[in-house]
Every structure is written in C-alpha cells, then in structure tokens.
Design brief:
- The protein is an alpha/beta fold.
- It is built from 18 helices and 13 strands.
- Helix 8 crosses helix 9.
- GO terms for molecular function: 5'-3' DNA exonuclease activity; 5'-3' RNA exonuclease activity.
- It comes from Buddleja alternifolia.
Length: 500
C-alpha cells in the first residue's frame, strides 16, 4: 500500500475495531525493500458490504442467515495471489503468474547480487548495472482469483462491516446486530427508501429512485417520525402489489394474492420480486429475470406505482434524522445526470459507483463533478444463481471507505449526541430502547438482565461507535454525568416506593 492508503487503512481499521483500538495497536507492518522503498502490509484484511437485503423486505435470507453467510464467505480459502509485473522502461510485461509479493522481492534481490557480481569481471559493468537497476524497478499489482477481491487495496478475508439496507424498513437490524456479535461483524443500520423523482420540464418524467440511508448505532434521531415515514411507504407497497396482480390477471397471467403474501412473509410489504416469484411458481415465466423483462420492469405492462415520497424530500429527511444519503444503483436510471444534480441540490451525500464488476467511470465522474461521495455494494438478495453478486464481492477501495467515514462520522456523532440529550429530557424505557436497540447488548435490555444498568448499556453501545476521544470530550462527559444523575434519582424514587 502507498503511504496515503496506509493512513486511510489505519483510520478505517481504528473505527472498525473501535473497542480494541488504542495507541499501542499497530494495524500495518512496514519494511524497506532492497531499493530502499517503503512497503506497507495490512495486518487485518477488511471488507465492507454497503448494500444487502433480508426477508424483512424482498431478500431470501433472514437477518441471522445473512450475517452467517457474510461470515462464512470469509471462511473460504482465497486463491493464491496473482501478480502482474511490469518493467515499464523495457516495455516488458509478464503475464499473470501465481507469485507472492515476497517471491518478487526475493527475485529482485537475487538479480541485484548477480549484477554486482558482474562488476568484478567486467570494467563496464558498473554503468550497465546502474542502468539495469533503474530499469528493473517493477510496478506490481496483486489480486486474488476469488471473485471481487482486489488486494491492490486490501484483500478481504471476510465481511467485517455490513450495512443492512432492507427496502423501506429497519425491522431486521436488531436481529442482524445480535447475530453479528458472534462473528465480530459490525452492523451499520441502514435502509433503502423507495421514492419518485418528478421532472420539472414539459417531458413530465416520472421515475422510481431508491435512496440509501446509513445511520449510527443509535439509529435515526427521530425514530418515530422515520418509522411513520417508512410505514406509509410500506402501506403504499401493499396497494401497488394489488394493482400489479390485478394487471397481471387482465393479461391472462392469473396469480393469487394469497400466494404473493405467503411468499413475502408475515407483515412484509410485497414488492415486485415477490410477485415475480409468484409468476414463476405459477409457471407463467421460466425465471425471475424473465418476469421483470416481460411484465414488471419500470413502465412495463404490469408496472404500477405506490405512494412513494418525492426523492428530494427523502434526501432531506434522511439528513434531518441523522443519516447519510446515497443514491442507489444510478445505472438503472433513465436520466441519471439530471437526477443526481437535483438530489445534490437537496443535500445528497453520495452515489453508488462501484459494483462487483468494478468502478463505473461514468458515475465516478458524475460524483467528482458534483463533489459527492462514491460508494457501492453487492445489492445482495440471496436469490442464488450465477447472475447475483455475493456478499462482499464489491471491492470498495480503502481510500473511498475512508472518505465516506470522514463525512459520516461527524453526522453520526451529532445524531448520537441529540439522541442522548433527548433521553435526558425524558428518561423513559422507550427512549432507552431507542439508544440501545441497534447496539450489541439490545438483548440484555429485552430480557431485563439485572447485572447491566442503563448507564452501562449506553456506554457499551457508544464504545462500539465513538472513539475514546469522542466519548471523553467535555460535551459527552457532561451528557454522561447528567444521565448518571438522572438514573440515580430514578433509583432513589424506586427504592422509596418499594419501602412504603
């Protein structure tokens, strides 16, 4: 890694391993090669998954099973590293061979010794040796044959950070967080919100747009308001699904509403993927892709809209509730340039520009043009098949992750502060639940574990998300003191009630 990548990697690692990090931990090894060039090697390989779904919306795996798959993917043995070596001055490029970076360095060292030996027997050898040494400084890019893994940044061994982004719900996050505790995976509470974009021109463009929202471990600042916002969308999804089923029946493709709701699962708002599965079960299509390409695509013969909010208003709402907003899969849009410009004006933070097949330059260029973050994820649903990208298959470079966290962490810090201050105003159980429900010990609160006080729960939750410096700054210290004081008063009142 370069020095810039090393600094970014260290910063990202400190956040990922927040509970373990202190000044004595080294995240990278450094050494000088035989040319005096500084090399850096990461001690812990990290991969982020920023976009995936569960059975809480239209995925095929439960939150627990999704986390387990993310962990098991990391258990797979990586193929040997492939190294492409280019001696640019000679224009010689070796084809990919299964060589490690250690073997390359050893080869260079042997070459140097042979050249130095030549100086003893040939008078002109010193000048030849110097020229050869200047020529033979290779650039080396290493990557694995495992899908989606590029070790020119950091070779991912397993998913270390997973953002669960179900459609229009955050219901699955507590379960995913609880499962992630067993594997040391960090969960970013997220959501993918269905919206509609309206053109202001005469063309009357109306296009579905999905916005990703990423929140802190304490979730949104206005939890009830966001839940109502998402609940209204889910109600619209039920109406939309019924309209699609009705259109399909008119197209002589009969499917039963009960079949759709059974596939979706109890309490889950049906989406187009659920209807596509119903079409497949009824024998009307050969596969899910055909269901979309023939009937369910945007503007297709069975397509219908729901009661989705306006895209710009959704971006603003994510910001108001302490989230980071990112435009999902812009390559699916008919007019991405216009939509990105308008959403940027509304406060959009970033766009997806990375997929499992690499960075898409047209969208990275749009991100640069509008000063937006770049991100990406697999959009994993768990449906299986060779056409679906697996969890962790999108290689988001460490520099890109670092830029994302530089923007996200101050937003999350302020959100956590606001949530704690709201708890101080009304220290009820529901507000305490709001703080810790996405944290690692939400189960302890549900089971009324007597050994963990609310103050300890809050501290443990914050230790997973805020650095020691952030937790110990005067602002947070004052808040924690106020919380301790409020909780002490509550205990005294409870004790007095019990003694009566």
């Amino acid at each position: 890694m370069t020095l810039e990548q090393t600094v970014a990697y260290k910063s990202v690692s400190e956040w990922v391993f927040m509970e373990q990090s202190n000044n004595s931990i080294n995240f990278v090894d450094s050494f000088l090669d035989d040319f005096g060039v500084q090399w850096y090697q990461p001690k812990e390989k990290i991969v982020f998954e920023f976009h995936c779904h569960t059975t809480c919306s239209d995925g095929f795996l439960s939150p627990t099973k999704l986390v387990e798959r993310a962990h098991q993917n990391g258990k797979k043995d990586l193929s040997p590293l492939m190294c492409k070596v280019t001696y640019s001055s000679f224009g010689i490029e070796h084809e990919e061979t299964e060589l490690s970076w250690k073997f390359l360095l050893l080869s260079r060292l042997i070459l140097i010794k042979l050249l130095l030996l030549a100086t003893v027997t040939h008078s002109s050898a010193p000048s030849i040796t110097c020229n050869l040494l200047s020529f033979l400084k290779p650039s080396c890019q290493c990557y694995s044959k495992a899908k989606g893994i590029d070790s020119s940044e950091v070779c991912p061994e397993q998913v270390k950070v997973l953002a669960l982004t179900d459609h229009d719900t955050m219901y699955g996050i507590p379960e995913a967080t609880e499962a992630a505790r067993r594997f040391g995976i960090k969960i970013i509470p997220g959501v993918e919100i269905s919206t509609i974009f309206y053109s202001r021109g005469e063309s009357g463009l109306e296009e579905p747009v999905h916005i990703l929202g990423y929140y802190s471990s304490c979730g949104p600042t206005k939890s009830a308001a966001l839940e109502k916002f998402l609940g209204d969308i889910r109600e619209g999804r039920f109406l939309r699904a019924k309209n699609i089923v009705s259109k399909l029946n008119k197209l002589k493709l009969p499917i039963r509403w009960e079949s759709v709701t059974k596939i979706a699962g109890k309490g889950v708002a049906p989406g187009r993927l659920h209807i596509a599965r119903a079409l497949l079960e009824a024998g009307h299509v050969e596969n899910l892709k055909q269901a979309f390409s023939r009937y369910l695509y945007d503007g297709g013969p069975a397509y219908s809209t729901g009661s989705e909010p306006v895209a710009e208003e959704t971006v603003q709402f994510i910001r108001e509730t302490g989230g980071v907003s990112v435009l999902a899969h812009p390559w699916a849009l008919k007019n991405p340039a216009l939509i990105i410009r308008r959403l940027k004006d509304a406060g959009l933070h970033g766009i997806e520009a990375y997929r499992s097949d690499g960075k898409l330059s047209v969208y990275s260029d749009l991100a640069d043009k509008h000063d937006l973050l770049m991100l990406g994820g697999s959009d994993y649903h768990g449906r299986g098949g060779q056409h679906e990208s697996d969890l962790g298959s999108t290689n988001v470079p460490v520099l890109i992750v670092h830029e994302f966290l530089k923007v996200a962490r101050p937003i999350w810090y302020n959100a956590i502060r606001d949530i704690l201050q709201n708890y101080l105003k009304d220290p009820c159980d529901s507000n305490l639940q709001h703080i810790v429900k996405f944290g690692k010990n939400n189960k302890a609160l549900k089971t009324n574990t007597p050994f963990i006080s609310p103050s300890e729960l809050i501290n443990q939750c914050l230790s997973l998300w805020l650095s020691k410096e952030e937790r110990e700054n005067p602002e947070f210290e004052a808040i924690k003191l106020d919380i301790s004081r409020v909780l002490n008063v509550q205990r005294e009142l409870e004790a007095n009630e019990e003694s009566k």
